[in-house]
Design goal:
The protein is of the alpha/beta class. The chain contains 15 helices and 19 strands. It has an eleven-stranded mixed beta sheet with strand order 9-8-10-11-12-13-1-16-19-18-17, sandwiched between helices. Helix 1 runs parallel beside helix 9, helix 2 packs across helix 3 and helix 6 packs parallel to helix 7.
């Protein structure tokens, strides 16, 4: 069964107590792409700023960042009467390609570089020790532990940016809300991914404090990750946790069915995992991450902001994306307001539930451009989702979507239940 094709997704924004802030290049030749104002003030040529963007890997979360950086720079260019000439490339997790891309940016005399994900930020840091080209990073989960900055408040050198720091306790609480009797959790990650070190340490602390056993399995390639997933099934874990780990994300399409067949939900640190079949991805709004990354870059180039004293931006908005095909295959029913998990019926937790149908492979803009359905007058969609509209207490939306043509995005408000209080979790 291939659940990632035409898959439906549910996004749920977790309760205010479960706040978070989530972590995180095709070939070495980058192609320039102008962004921004082409119409300078009368009699004056538009100032041109060259920006080089390197993405670590092709996935939904990171691609959203890149697209929103481009769009926001274009908008700022129009507002300020300047032009941003953007060169973009993706190294596809190949360090040699990544270093070549960065070398090309430097040879092209860019004014600023943007590194998307921790490995790219670290490579740009090493490449700019002498030339001090400003670097703005994005989706670096723990920039202090990775050595990219001295502190979040005062980065201290030529790098600053936005972090998708993962509040691991929020995911642990979601696991226990869905299955209060969980007694063994699997931790699946790549030991070589800096973005995984801190959240895995936090997960261990949480589980130990709550007297829950855990099993660690790691892998550095897709084949190794597949073996690790099979080992976790043999270990008899009740759920699996993976942070914002690019190695595991890349391998998700190869392992999600292993967990489904074993009845094990896979909780992860980004929505891109859920798009590839994992049960749940929990993290920040990556579109907003891209916008704020562009704002920081523009502040450095246009306003003279110093990266050394520009604080790293973090976010405390937690949004979970649930793959509803995987959810149904695991025996969880999110359409009726209650789940059934291992024969138990549990009330849904979290004050906001969002139901969307996954589009086919499309741009982030197409995936997330929502149209208010009540104003759009889409009677067919309204009738199709009559039950959802009846339960909705907020606005409902229709979204352009790959095969069905429309999908519902609605918001339901719920009262938090007492699962966490009964278990004695603070």
């Amino acid at each position: 069964m291939k659940l990632h094709t035409g898959t439906k997704l549910v996004s749920l924004a977790a309760a205010a107590a479960l706040t978070l802030s989530l972590a995180a290049c095709s070939g070495p030749a980058a192609s320039p792409m102008p962004a921004g104002g082409d119409t300078p003030p009368a009699g004056e040529p538009a100032a041109v700023y060259k920006v080089g963007i390197c993405n670590y890997v092709d996935d939904a979360s990171l691609n959203q960042i890149v697209e929103n950086i481009r769009d926001r720079l274009a908008a700022i260019g129009e507002e300020k009467g300047v032009r941003f000439e953007v060169s973009y490339d993706n190294c596809n997790a190949d360090s040699n390609v990544m270093n070549q891309i960065i070398a090309n940016f430097i040879a092209d005399d860019v004014d600023l570089m943007v590194g998307v994900a921790t490995p790219v930020a670290m490579a740009m840091q090493a490449a700019t020790e002498d030339n001090r080209i400003p670097v703005v990073f994005s989706a670096v989960s723990d920039p202090v532990s990775a050595g990219v900055v001295e502190s979040l408040e005062a980065p201290g050198a030529n790098l600053t940016g936005t972090s998708d720091y993962l509040d691991t306790n929020s995911i642990m609480n979601l696991i226990l809300a869905a299955d209060p009797e969980a007694s063994k959790i699997g931790l699946l990650y790549d030991q070589g991914q800096d973005s995984s070190a801190t959240p895995i340490a936090h997960a261990k602390e949480f589980l130990e404090a709550n007297h829950i056993d855990y099993v660690e399995r790691t892998g550095t390639t897709t084949d190794e990750v597949m073996l690790a997933a099979q080992a976790l099934v043999a270990d008899g874990v009740d759920a699996v946790f993976t942070p914002t780990d690019n190695t595991i994300m890349t391998a998700e399409l190869s392992i999600y069915e292993t967990f489904i067949e074993a009845g094990i939900p896979h909780y992860t640190g980004a929505d891109s995992f859920a798009l590839n079949g994992a049960f749940l991805g929990y993290g920040v709004d990556y579109a907003n991450l891209g916008v704020e990354t562009a704002n920081m870059a523009a502040g450095i180039l246009l306003d003279g902001s110093d990266p050394a004293s520009t604080p790293v931006m973090t976010f405390d908005n937690g949004t979970a994306t649930v793959n509803t095909d995987t959810c149904a295959a695991l025996g969880l029913d999110l359409h009726q307001g209650r789940h059934h998990h291992h024969g138990r019926e549990l009330r849904r937790t979290g004050p906001i539930i969002r139901l969307v149908e996954k589009p086919s492979r499309r741009s982030a803009r197409q995936k997330y451009a929502l149209i208010p359905a009540l104003r759009a007058g889409n009677d067919a969609s309204r009738e199709r989702y009559a039950g959802h509209f009846a339960r909705a207490q907020g606005e409902a939306f229709v979204q352009p979507s790959g095969r069905s043509g429309a999908a519902l995005f609605h918001r339901l408000n719920h009262h938090p239940d007492s699962i966490r209080r009964r278990r004695g979790i603070a």
